[in-house]
Amino acid sequence: MAKKIPVTALKANSSLLAFLLVTGPALPLANAQGLDVSRAEKSAPAASDTALVQGAGQAVPPEAVTDPQAGGAEIQALLGKLSNAVTNLEYRGLVTFEHVGVMETLEVVHGIRNGEPVERIRFLTGAPREMVSRGHDAQCRRDGSPLSRAGLWSNLGLQNVQDNYQFLLRGEERIADRETVVLEARPRDMHRFGMVVSVDRETGLPLKSLLVAPAGRVLERFQFVELELAPVADSELQPHSDSARERDSTGHCGTLVSRWQLGWVPNGFKAVAARELPDGEMQVFSDGLNAFTVFVQQLGPGMNYRGRAVRGATVAYMDHIEVNDEHYTVTVVGEIPDNTAQLVAKSVKNQP
Amino acid sequence: MSHGNHQQRLNESLSALMDGEASELEIQRLLREADAYGGEQGQRWSRYQLAASVLRGEKVAPVNLGLAASISAAIADEPPLAAIAEPQAANDSGAAQSRWWRPLSRGAVAATVAFAAVLGVQQMQAPQTGGELVAEVERPAQQPVQSVPQPSGFLVPSLNTRSVSTNPQLVPEQRVGMGASAQMQAVPSPELMRHLNRVMMEHSEQAARVGSQGMVPFARAAYGERPPE
């Protein structure tokens, strides 16, 4: 059976070529051959036709920022406000979360206890899923990582983020009955996705965020339907269902020195956390907006899958390496382009 | 208008569609004809696609156009489950059980064959990802979500609200020199799915700590989670 396939394929191949020669102008050869060379450009003409351009990585349209100085200052202020709101506000709300063409609704509660954020998130559609996460920021902050949540929008963090993304003001819109300012983070290279965030004008809370792939494809949308800005009671931070998973991860931010080294990471991504796992270790990299995690684990030779898996905006690229006759599974997971994940996975090597 | 002329025009429309140059009118005509005559245009279209794949240097699996038809026929031929089960279950429980399972397992085999065939073809058509950084546009499972209104310039195809599996979708890397049969064996094991679910969850939780995306990573982390069984 297996031997038959190449033969038939070959037959098909030659008869098709003959067929093509007969049809001639109906299917221009030059066109078909061109596809291989310029796969990236394939979609470009169609996109420009329909005025759906302005995707990631394109030149800034002049009307987007009329006065760079004024725009810059406004953006800085907005980013500062956003960082503050994400860390310090108490709120609850209903949210829609969409990806892969699927929409789910969920309930979110964000409180502050002992100066640390406590979050509860519960899906209201599909299988019951709930998660409570508390106290996860302390260690990172003490480590003084410029990319920790609190330090992210400090001057140093902001500089790093602006090296990798260009920020643009894209107007205003109303979300969850509140006025927002639309901010776009446009990647400066092909190794990261862009983001469009609608920031609440009054508080700075991000009320809608889109993850945007090149050519303006929206991969994921998280959007408030209803927002209540008020102190959160303790009971609201308790699990509401039996299936809830509680995650108390204080101190997990990572001091582990990894035995693995990456030969290549995209510009601007820095190691921000490393953690030991029962069967290996994980290392988190962030450029300030997006993040990916590199897992190197000993899962046995059975886990020799090589390829990628996609769920929503998240891609996992799996590979494996042999070091000193030991089999290691490498998995790069993140909201990054497929090829970037693959390149990172291929660059994993043992620390000399 | 002779039949031959008509046929030729249809073929030209089909070619135009293949090149992405078909007008609205031509597309309408093709769809109408596809309804009326079905098979012939469909097969021609498949051949064109196959031809383009070959020219692009992609590996091509021989596509058996009769497969789908024969599977539907096989399934249609199966007697309904209830029809067999009810009269039997009343008196002879032992025989009823075996009768019960027979059509079920036959249907399951048909479904498995269809699944394997589709999986194989899809893998064959997966773009080769050399070292080139061009393929974001072809990311298969990351379909854009619907969002209106948008800031101008964002592409937003339609939203599908039916519930789907929260499991990651696999896209194995194409391996040079491997036969089609080897490719088809890449059916995800439960172990692999568990691993992928786990790393995606761990990643999202860590990302929530270092990123600035607010609660979005938590939504991702909780998304694929399953209640304890």
TrEMBL record, chain A:
UniProt keyword annotation of Lipid metabolism present: no
InterPro entries to which the protein is assigned, alphabetical: MucB/RseB_C (IPR033436), MucB/RseB_C_sf (IPR038484), MucB/RseB_N (IPR033434), MucB_RseB (IPR005588)
Location of the MucB/RseB C-terminal domain: 258-349
Domain MucB/RseB N-terminal: 75-239
Signal peptide start and end residues: 1-28
Cellular localisation: Periplasm
Keywords assigned by UniProt, alphabetized: Periplasm, Signal
Family of the protein in this entry: Belongs to the RseB family.
PANTHER family registered for this protein in UniProt: PTHR38782, SIGMA-E FACTOR REGULATORY PROTEIN RSEB
This protein's name: Transcriptional regulator
Organism of provenance: Microbulbifer harenosus
TrEMBL record, chain B:
A Pfam family this chain is assigned to: RseA_N
Residue stretches making up the Anti sigma-E protein RseA N-terminal domain: 11-84
InterPro entries found in the cross-reference section: Anti-sigma-E_RseA-like, Anti-sigma_E_RseA_N, Anti-sigma_E_RseA_N_sf
Protein name as catalogued: Anti-sigma factor
Originating species: Microbulbifer harenosus
Lineage: Bacteria, Pseudomonadati, Pseudomonadota, Gammaproteobacteria, Cellvibrionales
